[in-house]
Amino acid sequence: MSKLTLGPLFFQWKPEQRRDMYFRIADEAPIDCVYLGEVVCSKREPLYYDYLPEIVERLSAAGKQVVLSTLALITSDRELAAIAERCGEAMIVEANDVASISLLKGRPHITGPFINVFNEATLDFLVRQGAIRVNLPVELSGTAIATLARHNPVETEVLVFGRQPLSVSMRCYHSRAYGVHKESCQFVCETDPDGLAASQLTGAPLLRVNGTQTMSHGYAVLLRELTTLQTAGVTHFRLSPQVADMVQVAEIYRSVLDGDLDAASGEALLHNLTGETPYVNGYVRGREGMAWAET
Amino acid sequence: MRDIAYLELVCPAGTPAALRTAIDAGADTVYCGFRDCTNARNYPGLNFDAKELREGVAYAHARGRWVIVAINTFPRAGDVGPWHRAIDTAAACGADAVILADIGLLDYAMRKHPNLRRHLSVQAAASNPLSIDFYRETFGISRVVLPRVLAVDEVASLISRMKVEAEVFAFGSVGTMVEGRCTLSSYITGRSPSSDGVCAPAEFVHYREDGAFMESCLGDVVMNRYARNENAAYPTPCKCRLVTNDNASYLFEEPVGLNAVSILPQLKAAGVTALKIEGRQRSRAYVGQVVTAFRTVLDGLARGESKPQAVADLHAMAEGGKETLSAYKKGWK
Amino acid sequence: MDEVTFPIIIARGMLAALPRPVIGRGAAALMRSMRRHHPDLFRNLAALPPTRLQVEPTDLPHRFLLSFGEKPASLTLVRGDAPACHATLKGSVDSLLALLEGRIDSDALFFTRAITIVGDTSAVVALRNTLDREEISLLDEAMALLGPLRGIGRRSVLRWEGRAERLRDRIIAMRAPDAPEGRDLAAECGSLRAEIETLKSRLAKQEILARRKQGVAA
Predict the structure, then answer these.
(1) Whether the complex's predicted ipTM surpasses the cut of 0.90
(2) Can you give the pLDDT at residue A124?
(3) pLDDT for residue A19
(4) Which of B79, B87, B103 is the best mutation test for A, with the most CBs of A within 10 A?
(5) What subunits touch chain C, counting only 3 or more CB pairs under 8 A?
(6) Nearest CA in chain A to C212
(7) Average pLDDT, stretch B281-308?
């Protein structure tokens, strides 16, 4: 049966806001697996530990698989130590950098969407290393996803809801936008729990900045593709946490996955939850990522 | 054992003519790619076929230099053939190394051509000793091209803890995002450096005159607006002007070029093996000028002499007329 | 539309100096010679997709239509309305010739706005890259063909030669930081900029703190 997952929270939320979201997910959402852990910025990591044990406990008690995600970019000794610690946990870990894969080699783990899996040979290699679930990069077309999912002997996961992570950097654009130094940023990213809107000079929105990460302005919404992806062998469908009500988002996706709701109706319901934010599905259609095609 | 007294100069060639120009100007190594999506500079009219590569290798080898081939995009699912052929062809033409990023390709090259040197492309974004060691142990890489995310002291610290050669970027157009992990170009155009070998492909670029201004566009997206007398840079997504909180700025990076000429002694002291000049898409005239200047500076460095004229030439050639030390400089982040 | 066809190659040098019929005849001869000496260039140009570029030298009263891809490359003098084309290249004759010859880097020219492209930029990039593959001495080719006209040709060519050099110097001069004697303006700018950054940073932090106190999310 198709599984619904909640990806790691990319944004810097206040500890209470984060805790409340996860508690609600634990208590109410039809989600099978939840990824926890700071993926974007190692400076935020210490803040992430607030309420983490309570969150893990509540999710586990609710019968959800809990996965620890690792940082997408690792350069410093501090970051190496952090991933070493996380990879040493008894819990299953999602590797978002080759460094983590090297630590997890030989034991079951999940590879995250920041690992470049574009073809069968790379996928086979990761499975030989111990991957039991492979997240595919957001950039892949539906054709490529289908080819890889069919080929994949283990589980395949694809992001089907939320802002798409488009790039990783050493530089913190949040700090740059607010005119502060990264070293003394005072977590300015916390002022934008939905990311910082970056528009074209014409005023048309284009991207969202989240610290060192740059994301799509639009939400990827692949409700219309779910059936095709299921048929192709995608086993796990990832929702990326946004400020929208994730419990209701999960309910809509669950219903469409189960065939209890058609995609168009699901989309109409989803629009009530996501306000003005436009939807994108270009990548999966083999087009520019920012495109939205209804047919 | 690497000879720490010498900095190898690795230079770009988009065409056979540029290869000869670079060699004549003093390049130790020239890197190039094939005329397809297997390399990260897949631009119209650019790059080599097998015959041209074979001739280029002969030209370089006759002068004691190297030619290495970038096959640094990620093969498409169900279509790995062109990438395998590219590696086979590079080996058959006598190339001295291949530059690879994809795990599957590294695996293929190691098994099929164990004696062909493998360099890890910047597209693989190996930015820490653990990752680099993983690629060395698993795929026997001899060299890593370091991602442009590290300050000079971090480069030194990393090199002291890795067992392969380090190549670093010294000059040219550089993005601010971690390479191999940026899809801004495909978000806007559908084509990306990782899969198609192009960032902001020229067929999506257009300039629109708007009264006293000119707009540079990528696809339907306005990347920048210039006054008549302002310099217009190529509309690369990470160097576009964006509005945040009602403030228009170069949010990611100004349209500047990397120029590390002022820190060559530090890079040398850090244990860097090779300096890379970016620009396979640039003309052979540009390649000739940059390589000549770098050769002069490096020869001077080896003898303890400064070469102010060559340094000035490099300043003048930086992208957009403006230059940066990028991540090498503390505080850039 | 009254058109006189001649190869792109001859454009350099002789355009302004020679009468049109002479250009036509010389062009045909040069074309034959070029094709003999540089089969690769013509093969490479022919391998490109069919392309029509309008070339507008801003300091000449003429516009040209440059065609390549499939058919042999040609340059057509245009009169009247602009023909349908993939892109328009605008710039001074100096810049355009320097670009086509690969003597000055096209990227550098774009940066300084010496040349502007309206339309399909990839067509122009493809042309430039293809021309850059060849090491051609156009001057030698043209001179050998000019015969009795050599004197006029050489004079005009030398004139272009000088202009291109001056253009390059100008580009470099535009980039060079102003450094009046006795003052290190760059250093002064740097320290002022640093000071401004510090102040901006301090201000921004205050704003953020203030905003947090009010409990307002951006």
Answers:
(1) yes
(2) 97
(3) 96
(4) B103
(5) A, B
(6) A191
(7) 92
Q: State the nearest Cα–Cα gap between B324 and chain C, in angstroms.
A: 13
As a whole number of angstroms, the distance between CA A146 and CA A152 comes to 10
Mean pLDDT of chain C: 67
Write the Ramachandran bin of B166: left for phi over 0, alpha for psi from -120 to 50, otherwise beta: beta
Neighbours of chain B (3+ CB pairs under 8 A): A, C
Asked if residue C150 and residue C46 are part of one domain, the reply reads yes
Q: Which residues from chain B sit within 8 angstroms of residue A163, using beta carbons? A: none
Show the domains of chain A with their CATH numbers.
Answer: 3-164+217-280 (3.20.20.70)
Q: What is the pLDDT at residue C24?
A: 57
Higher pLDDT among residues C108 and B46, named by residue:
B46
Residues C161 and C190 in one domain: no
Percentage with pLDDT > 70 across chain B: 97
Q: Per the CB < 8 Å rule, is C174 touching B209?
A: no
Q: Are residues C31 and C105 in the same domain?
A: yes
Residue C140 and residue C198 in one domain: no
Confidence of residue C6 (pLDDT cuts 50, 70, 90): very low
Distances (CA, A) of A209 to B191, B269, C74: 21, 36, 49
3-state secondary structure of C180: coil
Chain B residue with the nearest C-alpha to that of C86: B203
Domain count, chain C: 2
Do C213 and C145 lie in one domain? The reply is no
Q: For the CA atoms of A14, A15, A20, A21, what is the dihedral angle to 10 degrees?
A: 70
Q: What is the mean pLDDT of residues A179-204?
A: 94
Nearest-angstrom CA–CA distance, C116 and C130: 19
- Is there a contact between B99 and B80 (Cβ–Cβ < 8 Å)? no
CATH number of residue C26's parent domain: 3.30.1050.10
The answer on pLDDT for C163 being more than 70 is no
Q: Do A186 and C205 touch (CB under 8 A)?
A: yes
- C122 with C26, same domain: the answer is yes
Whether residue C199 sits in one domain with residue C147: no
Residues of A with Cβ-Cβ distance to B248 under 8 angstroms: 201
Q: Which domain holds residue C218?
A: 184-218
| Cα–Cα distances in angstroms (integers) from residue C33 to residues A271, C12, C38, C77, C140, in the given order | 67, 16, 8, 21, 11
- The CB-side HSE value for B31 (13 A sphere, CA atoms) comes to 28
Report, as an integer, the average pLDDT of B57-69. 98
How far is A276 from chain B, CA to nearest CA, in Å? 18
A vs B, Cβ pairs < 8 A, gives 205
Tell me which fold the domain B8-175+256-328 belongs to: TIM Barrel (3.20.20)
Spell out which chain C residues touch chain B, with contact meaning CB-CB distance below 8 angstroms.
Answer: 44, 48, 102-108, 110-113, 116-122, 124-130, 132-135, 172, 174-177, 218
Q: Using a CB-CB distance cutoff of 8 angstroms, which residues of chain C are in contact with residue A179?
A: 197, 200-201, 203-204
Q: Which residues of chain B make contact with A173, given a CB cutoff of 8 A?
A: 251-252
- Cβ of B45 within 8 Å of Cβ of C127? The answer is yes
Handedness of CA B255, B259, B262, B263 (dihedral sign): positive
> Are C56 and C94 part of one and the same domain?
yes
